[in-house]
Amino acid sequence: MILLVRGDREYLREPGETLETDLGVLEIPTDAEPGDVLETHLGEEFRVRELRGPDLFNHLERTGAPMLPRDVGLVIGETGLAAGDRVLDAGTGTGVLASHLGRLGADVVTYERKPEFAEVARENMALAGVDERVEVRTGDLTDDLEDLSGFDVLTLDTEDAPDAVARADELLVPGGFLAVYSPFVEATREVVEAARESLSDVRAVETIQRELDVDSRGTRPSTGPVGHSGYLVFARNV
Q1: Are residue 44 and residue 63 in the same domain, yes or no?
Q2: pTM for this entry
Q3: Which residues contact 229 (CB under 8 A, 6 or more apart)?
Q4: Do 88 and 105 lie in a common domain?
Q5: Positive or negative torsion for Cα 215, 220, 226, 227
Q6: Which residue stretches of the chain have pLDDT < 70?
């Protein structure tokens, strides 16, 4: 897959396909490569761009509210996740987090309860080019806890996260990391309390990002809404 970009327009297509827009018809060459400039039959230009991690947030098929890129970045930075790590994930949803981790070179097993969501997630993993690294399982992680162990990182975005957190010390290797996302303060407190039973370095953070307005008069924080997205709990196996 490649991206065809013109201004704020983006179209995801395969080389060899046809793009039809109000700017004309574009026959995409089979050998189209990132950096190429292609013209429609009306002479309008589109630039070819490679599909990269941040683009997945906009182009994966959504089955719910996906984790924002800034939260994905925090998970990666706080856990030190790297190529070759084994990751256990639950609450796949759209698969933004799982696909990012797969693109880093991690091997991910991710659980999604809803069969229709799991099928979409598998298609998204193929689009992201990580279907060989990310295994999407249909089911509830808490049903399989007895059979799982040896993971470097455990990531959760589910209502029953405290149940899995209570077994995190058995799921993780020594020194492995836990990262739990929640949109609610009450759920975050439950996760923290469960993590304190068997893990170390437990801490909870709110993820907020505020944009800057930059113009000829000067630069200052935007007067728009503060960019709150949710809460993340991090902890480490002893």
Answers
A1: no
A2: 0.88
A3: 68, 70, 71, 183, 207, 208, 209
A4: yes
A5: positive
A6: none
